[in-house]
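Hey team,

Sharing the Cell division protein FtsW run so nobody has to redo it. Sequence (469 residues) first:
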Amino acid sequence: MSVVTNTTTIGAIEAPSRRNTELAMLAFAVVIPIFAYLNVGLAVNDKVPSGMIGYGLGIGLLAGVGHLVVRKFAPYADPLLLPLATLLNGLGLVLIWRLDQSPRLIARAELAYGSFSPDAPKQLLYSAIGIALFVAVLLLLKDHRILQRYTYISMAVALVLLILPVFFPARNGAKIWISLGPFNLQPGEFAKIIIAIFFSGYLMVKRDALALASRRVMGLYLPRGRDLGPILMVWAMSILILVFETDLGTSLLFFGLFVIMLYVATERTSWIVFGLVMSAAGAVGVATFEPHVQQRVEFWLNPFAESTWEQSDQIGQALMSFGAGGTLGTGLGQGNSDLIGFAANSDFILSTVGEEFGLAGMMAFLLIYGLIVERGVRTALAARDPFGKLLAIGLSGAFAIQVFVVAGGVMGLIPLTGMTMPFVAAGGSSVIANWALIGILIRISDTARRPAPAPAPSTDAEMTQVVRP
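Structure output:
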């Protein structure tokens, strides 16, 4: 006896969301900074710090809120981006609090300003605002392709943000801040995200024209003269920023971002060659008549010169702190990077990492940054639309350039730029903007990794016979 059963087959496989993996990684990302906080308290004051429970609850609450929002509104997002950013943010808070305990920095601040205001509580507040913006991005940005509608609006907004600091007083020789009473804003941190949106929308439309080449010279395909317009315009804007704001970091970030995205969109090596040549030519040209840029180059070339030690002592102290750290470091709270002065917790916070964590710890920090960039590039490769690919690679490229510019300046590889290390250095604009950047990358990765909907059942579907004895 046999029974014939007709069944319809549908090939839909549910992809794993990896949210539990993200939760496990977040637990480590919260526990590691808590133990680091405990280590600093024992090293500096020989006792468990009184604020340890509050710090642990604060960073745990922020990480938990971020995870719940991702689990609900971006369930297929990359599981590593949020834990990596949380780990950097948590360790940055610990390093800033460690410098707040320095008697030398406290005495110097009281002598200069009459009182000392710790930066760690403010940085925790900025981190909370950054997480709030991260949540807002995931709640409001349902589809990253919506941003393509605002291509030219984003260009106008970015130009306004880059021009505004010209009308405010310079700080430490550079006009990169907007000061409104007690509030200070560094618009360049937000401009990098908005510029990436503009470049993504523009290059998605113009990439075919930009990919055309007229002739081949010395193995390189040179672009047509009329196609040089965009790169000449961006080059001129970066030079103007460098001239009027004496801001080397934002200029390098702005122009480097455009060259990376242009190469990815067109796959023409000639654009990189043109970009590097024009960037070098512009920097050399500005350095010949801009005193502030000349000064930074001089400090970079001769950080230990007696004639300039009073101005270049921060760079010299930073290099000595790296040497004092050795391979494994002096231990948290047991270094002397606070001798650097007022920029110890912002521009030069990597010096504390190099001295107290050593070469091994510095490599671990750079590896975490590299993982964030790698996950962003992987998101770009997985994205199904050209705009998403370009936007993910643009945001990842901007993040990578900023890390290189800051780390290179502190380590003496390039002249100091004055930018802040993402998530680690003290500064509200930086941490808030970079949390927004991570939010956009998570939204793109959720769209890229989300499984395609299963096809609807069809009456013409293949009929399968199952025979049962």
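The longest strand covers residues 3-8.

Ping me if you want the raw files.
A.
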